[in-house]
Amino acid sequence: MQPLAILKPASLSQAVTMHQAEPQPRYLAGGTDLVPNMRKNIQKAQTLIDISGLAELREIRTESQSLRIGAGVTLEAFCEAPAVRTHAPLLVQAASQVAAATHRATATVGGNLLQDTRCYFYNQSDWWRTANEFCMKCEGDICRVAPKSDRCYACYSGDLAPALLVLDARIDIVGPTGTRQEPLAALFADDGMHHLKLAAGDLLVSVEVPAQAGWSAGYEKMRLRGAIDFPLAGVAVALRRDGNRVAELRVACTGVNSYPGLVPGLEALAGKVPDDAFYATLDKAVRKEIQPMASTLTAAGYRRRIVSAMARRLVGKLFAAACN
User: Fold this and answer.
1) Neighbours of 172 (CB within 10 A)
2) Cβ-Cβ contacts under 8 Å for 107 (sequence gap 6 or more)
3) What residue segments make up the domains of the chain, in order of their start?
4) In this predicted model, what pLDDT tens digit does every residue of 46-98 receive, in sequence order?
5) Topology of domain 223-324, per CATH?
6) Which of 19, 163, 178, 242 lies at a CB distance of 3.0 to 4.6 Å from 201, suitable for a disulfide?
7) Strand ranges inside the chain, DSSP E
């Protein structure tokens, strides 16, 4: 691994200033994604700005009807926090499925959201990539998954993002140009190389989750092993029930695109009875949104079918539970 300077800022503003002043800087919190990638020489840095000790990033607090979660909160503390369990149990369900217990003790909320995209041509050792040619995302000039494409198809595989998307979460960012709040969905782009819409020096501070009264939500993922693995496909669903009809429905996917995304067009299902026609429309909308590629260990077609099946199953389960 390359030589490093490690700096510890005393505040968010100092962290941003350091990022502007230092050569090839990166923010470091838990490091469970960044450090292994640096060891493989697929992510590089000369300066690590250690933000793990900043109190502003480690708070979980309720504000009026919303819940604010610091980006530096570890997934372990996140899952154990009574405020999260009460306000948004879906988030505990998703976070508790991330990696293994020892990872969750170090990995952070922000790190899970901002993790690098993955592909079996990219996430390899330096010697492997040297022997098998480099890809567009790391020192090469073509996407090994889609050689005729002018973009990278590395896959986003975070668990928290789809859950937060269906809960209509917003994020707070501080950077060289000041602070801003925006919908979580605005953070991501459909590009495996540049999947985060962050300017140089931007730092994710917190996530705000609005009140969830009347909503039922769940998350499911498919992976090879029952623990440790990233999702090869994951689905989060949130819905409101009104009698025998679905009043509102949100579905978000992970592991099947270069970004985590809300499935568009589901407004057409509002006010509908969840019958065969309803699920046929849902299947069509989900399949249109996702674009699994040969970038993970399972076939793209299988992942496509799994996402539709998980979405259908979750909607049915949540709809039935909402009457209790």
Assistant:
1) 17
2) 30, 32, 33, 74, 75, 98, 99
3) 223-324
4) 999 999 999 999 999 998 889 999 999 999 999 999 999 999 999 999 999 99
5) Enolase-like; domain 1 (3.30.390)
6) 19
7) 5-7, 25-28, 47-50, 60-63, 66-70, 170-175, 178-183, 203-209, 216-222, 233-242, 245-254, 261-262
